[in-house]
Amino acid sequence: MVETNRLRFPSPVTMIMRAKRTSLYTLVAGIILCTVSYLLGFWHQPTGTIPVTAVSHRHHQPPPCVPLLRSVNSTRLDFSSHHRAELDTPSAGLLPSTAALDTHFPSCAAELSEYTPCEDVKRSLRFSRDRNIYRERQCPTPEEKFRCRIPAPVGYKIPFRWPESRGVAWYDNVPHKELTVEKRVQNWVHYDKKTRRLTFPGGGTMFPRGADAYINDIGKLIDLEDGSIRTAIDTGCGVASWGAYLLSRDILAMSFAPRDSHEAQVQFALERGVPALIGVLASIRLPYPSRAFDMAHCSRCLIPWGKYDGLYLIEVDRVLRPGGYWILSGPPINWQKHWKGWERTKEDLNAEQSEIEAVAKSMCWKKLVQKDDLAIWQKPTNHVHCEKTRKVFKKPRFCQDQDPDGAWYTKMEDCLTPLPKVTDVKEVAGGELAKWPERLNTVPPRISSGSLKGITAKIFHENTKMWKKRVEYYKKYDIQFAERGRYRNVLDMNAFLGGFAAALIDDPVWVMNTVPVEAESNTLGVIYERGLIGTYQN
């Protein structure tokens, strides 16, 4: 008879085998859980969050040049929206497509961290030195283009936030010491080896007491506080301290300088959070529309203003608005005091000033004042009297059949850009601008006059409201964009009427508004009439 109720205990060998089997199962289960957790975490991790300090130190050769895809040759751009601003969810169409995420471009070699395709110093040496043409935009051929991503410099750090960045930057972000040595006495920029920081005391060749004091001197001669001066251009800007200190006065300056022996000038400016663009006065027009700037400035910029029949002053006249100011300091102004320090003869400096005075007078500019190291001229508000003086001044003649706003690889001409016609001698050509800040949202004269086909005051107001709504949505969608001070330099690649920049006016950012040259309507003039800045691009 079998005893079914007897307890049966496994043998010791069986117990050991079961224990081993249990441990193995636990181990396998643990590995599976860890793997699943890791994959889930990786899947939820957003792209593009690699810290900016994680820069590759590997030096490798640039990848072979691959021809870029041929773009569609169309002169009609799409300015319509492709997402709905009223939605608060990621389903609004802002997420990149799967195809875009799958595209991979390798990093360029580390030595290309400062490579600027159309401003390549080495490539420019192939071109003419005459009038500094070799320092103009000289773009690579299709065979010379890279299909790789420009890396940050080794050791790159997150820039200081505005307004602290106005006076300090990380050396590793702009690793150049040339100006810290050459311009040390003039207080352009200093380098602290211990902290590896660059400091910008605000000095300049003609304002060793600092840009703030220098601007105060200008403010004693013309009104910088009543809102009539909002946009400015600084030719040969150095490290852009003039533009940097104008910002506290609500004046937005576009600073430009070439890639020359001081190759880091514009990089210094941008690292500081100051508007700047690589550029030079040579043979082609500056990439701005006519009547753009309320004030133009040159502080020992070494531009031969009186040469070539006044070609460069004529270009300044084109981009200066009616009634705008041109400020000159440095040679030859006040040469009686500085001629020895400038290592030039009295006769040479006197002749240079006479040439400048003659060109300015031939363009109907009025010299308002010359005091100490500053001289200021003013452009007329219209050309009523200037047209009559062409019987006396044979040069410059008025340009004929010319687009005054065309400035993309457009050759400069030694002719005067005519201002829009007026019916009264006291009228401001092209329309009087409202003072800042009302100017931002007032219908620009180019629109109210009907100069821009198909763009009305109604469209302007609707565009302004739409961009306010869009920016509110962007900030809900992107926390970093909403964080004040997180960003400083912003590029709008298809600016239209400048509504995006206008919607950000209360944020501590500045926007470079670009208008594609292929656009059906050239709206960059409207952007400047709003008191914003920008440039052309294709």
Automatic annotation (TrEMBL):
GO biological process: methylation
MF annotations from Gene Ontology: methyltransferase activity
The keyword Chaperone belongs to this UniProt entry's keyword annotation: no
Chief location bin: endoplasmic reticulum
Entry GO CC: endoplasmic reticulum membrane; endosome; trans-Golgi network
Localisation: Endoplasmic reticulum membrane; Membrane
Keyword entries, A-Z: Glycoprotein, Membrane, Methyltransferase, Signal-anchor, Transferase, Transmembrane, Transmembrane helix
InterPro entries (UniProt xref): Put_SAM_MeTrfase, SAM-dependent_MTases_sf
Top-level class of the enzyme under EC nomenclature: transferase
Chain ranges passing through the membrane: 24-43
EC number: 2.1.1.-
Membrane disposition: Single-pass type II membrane protein
PANTHER family according to UniProt: METHYLTRANSFERASE PMT15-RELATED (PTHR10108:SF1059), SAM-DEPENDENT METHYLTRANSFERASE (PTHR10108)
Protein name according to UniProt: Methyltransferase
Native source species: Ficus carica
Taxonomy of the source species: Eukaryota, Viridiplantae, Streptophyta, Embryophyta, Tracheophyta
